[in-house]
């Protein structure tokens, strides 16, 4: 257990499309510039985590999501990241469009995931949470 008051509160969204592919973004800024990760970012003052997930995914991918259960929490340096399993909201576009802190966004299958340079620790955490691409 970590003391969250010493960390910057962040969120991430784990989204699979109807075919089981995982939504990833290529980070345009540090930390992890040029590497792939699940979309997410900082929780704004006065914002709850679920609202932050919805906002961050809309900003980074153009997709509307409904956050579900908390998949888990990771601490990376000064950041405490709460990752939520999310479903695409009814009426949301199915094709992501990169924006904000992302310079690319896409759904990837397992072979595509394995070919991408991802942020340190992502694969192990997603495997532990059963959240890697399903195909």
TrEMBL record:
SUPFAM superfamilies (alphabetical): Nudix
Keyword Hydrolase: yes
Cofactor: Mg(2+)
Gene3D superfamilies: Nucleoside Triphosphate Pyrophosphohydrolase
CDD domains, per database record: NUDIX_ADPRase
Cited Pfam families: NUDIX (PF00293)
Family matches, as InterPro entries: Nudix_hydrolase, NUDIX_hydrolase-like_dom_sf, NUDIX_hydrolase_CS, NUDIX_hydrolase_dom
All copies of domain Nudix hydrolase, residue ranges: 5-132
Keywords of the record: Hydrolase
Family named by the database record: Belongs to the Nudix hydrolase family.
Protein name: NUDIX domain-containing protein
Species annotation: Pseudonocardia kongjuensis
């Amino acid at each position: 257990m970590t003391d969250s008051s010493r960390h910057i509160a962040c969120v991430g969204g784990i989204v699979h499309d109807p075919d089981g592919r995982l939504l990833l973004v290529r980070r345009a800024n540090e930390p992890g510039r040029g590497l792939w990760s699940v979309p997410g970012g900082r929780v704004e003052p006065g914002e709850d985590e679920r609202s932050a997930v919805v906002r961050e995914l809309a900003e980074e991918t153009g997709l509307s999501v409904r956050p579900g259960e908390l998949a888990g929490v990771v601490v990376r340096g000064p950041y405490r990241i709460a990752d939520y399993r999310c479903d695409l909201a009814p009426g949301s576009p199915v094709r992501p469009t990169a924006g904000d802190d992302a310079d690319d966004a896409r759904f990837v299958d397992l072979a595509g995931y394995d070919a991408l340079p991802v942020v340190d620790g992502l694969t192990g955490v997603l495997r532990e949470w059963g959240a890697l691409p399903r195909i």
